[in-house]
């Protein structure tokens, strides 16, 4: 019985076997290639399967996705822009397996619920700040999937005071303030000389004035978006992951200040916003959860 998890992430393609004792050192990953993405995904999966019969595969994919057809069109994979039948392709590769797919944010939310910071709450929001900004919402203990599978796009919640262009075609979205490209571009405009958000986080830690200001700007925006969503859905726990959201990052103080300023309804004082403990395993862990769930629901394997 071999179970695989696959991540079609914003910057990487990654896969791992889901089994007891398998940890992050067993993740196989490559940067999202300019071309030949399916060939690379296929190689990753076959490498991990190592000739064994695969019984289930769970897939976490960047959006947009179409849940009903299993087709994905993530922005970072150019050749898939017209829609790529990912579920069908994986199914052909492993005909005996049950194959299930969900949005990256849905998988993140499932991972935090099963293994992370939202284990003991029923109503939560899980956010990842990386190349894109995405998330998943859990209400009453159930992850919100949405009509087409794309619910939870916290990155495209509007933030007051911002009007910059967003990759979605709109303006003023959270991603256009707190996504890695926006964050580093803003810092460079102010005279910062670094390149990546990891550099930015390190420079902020070292006291670089512009890097600190960049994280303050992003933290305030994230806090405002969180306050809006918490009020809308009566959320009591929010977990934030990604390279600028590690514990101790300069993101947290402005984030907490914004939440304290804006989340003032009488049911919100218990709202807690915490860093994730799942490092970069969130999507794969969530994909593992849906693989196990789909296997249990599959009539071919149900007893
Ligand atoms: Zn947007």
UniProtKB/TrEMBL annotation:
<protein>
    <submittedName>
        <fullName>ROK family protein</fullName>
    </submittedName>
</protein>
<dbReference type="InterPro" id="IPR000600">
    <property type="entry name" value="ROK"/>
</dbReference>
<dbReference type="InterPro" id="IPR043129">
    <property type="entry name" value="ATPase_NBD"/>
</dbReference>
<comment type="similarity">
    <text>Belongs to the ROK (NagC/XylR) family.</text>
</comment>
<dbReference type="Pfam" id="PF00480">
    <property type="entry name" value="ROK"/>
</dbReference>
């Amino acid at each position: 019985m071999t179970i695989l998890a696959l991540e079609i992430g914003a910057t990487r393609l990654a896969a791992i076997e889901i089994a007891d004792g398998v940890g992050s050192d067993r993740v196989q990953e490559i940067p999202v290639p300019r071309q030949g993405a399916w060939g690379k995904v296929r190689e990753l999966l076959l490498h991990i399967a190592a000739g064994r019969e695969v019984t289930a595969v769970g897939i976490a994919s960047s959006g947009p996705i179409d849940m009903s057809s299993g087709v994905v069109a993530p922005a970072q994979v150019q050749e898939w822009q017209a829609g790529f039948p990912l579920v069908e392709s994986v199914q052909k590769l492993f005909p005996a397996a049950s194959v299930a797919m969900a949005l990256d944010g849905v998988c993140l939310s499932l991972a935090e619920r099963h293994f992370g910071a939202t284990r003991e709450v029923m109503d939560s929001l899980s956010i990842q700040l990386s190349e894109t900004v995405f998330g998943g919402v859990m209400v009453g203990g159930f992850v919100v999937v949405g009509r087409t599978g794309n619910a939870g796009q916290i990155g495209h919640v509007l933030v007051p005071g911002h009007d910059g262009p967003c990759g979605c075609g709109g303006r003023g979205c959270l991603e256009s303030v707190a996504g890695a490209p926006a964050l580093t571009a803003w810092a460079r405009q102010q005279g910062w000389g670094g390149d990546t958000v990891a550099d930015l986080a390190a420079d902020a830690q070292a006291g670089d004035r512009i890097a600190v200001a960049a994280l303050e700007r992003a933290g305030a925006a994230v806090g405002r978006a969180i306050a809006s969503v918490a009020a809308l859905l009566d959320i009591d726990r929010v977990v934030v992951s990604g390279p600028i959201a590690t514990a101790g990052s300069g993101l947290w103080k402005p984030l907490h200040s914004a939440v304290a300023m804006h989340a003032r309804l009488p049911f919100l004082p218990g709202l807690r916003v915490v860093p994730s403990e799942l490092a970069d395993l969130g999507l794969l862990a969530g994909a593992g959860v849906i693989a196990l769930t789909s296997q249990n629901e599959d009539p071919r394997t149900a007893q």
